[in-house]
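#lab-general

N.A. 3:47 PM
ok so I finally got the sequence cleaned up, no stray characters, all 137 residues accounted for. can someone with queue access submit it? mine expired

B.Y. 3:52 PM
send it over

N.A. 3:53 PM
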Amino acid sequence: MATSLGQDTTESVRQVRQARLRLVQVEPWSVMKASFLLSVAVAIVTVVAVAIVWGVLGAAGLWDSINSIVQDSLGDSNGTPFDIETYLGASRVIGFTMIVAVADVVLITAIATLGAFLYNLAATLVGGVEVTFAEDK
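B.Y. 4:20 PM
back already:
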């Protein structure tokens, strides 16, 4: 199949198909379920990350260094030694992180659901978001 220089190559040019779609409504129940699951995943990742960072800081000897710095700064060598973990222990930090994670789950779910309702209101006024999809060559 040799082609000559004067041949028309229109069969090699392909027409790109396009589809124009408009997003006019978002189902709030679906948004609530999806945002709840994603925020629970983020909460789990947050608690695990804080626990890992806390363990790494303890293994690196940060708490002992802070204890010695505070003990040297106070100059009280005959009293009870200072221990930062009595004020800022792992159980307190992870407990606080869990409280914040639960609050984030509730807030993110509520805000996403409210956002779906607000989008539906705006879409009824302006017609929604128009998206154009094109097929790759």
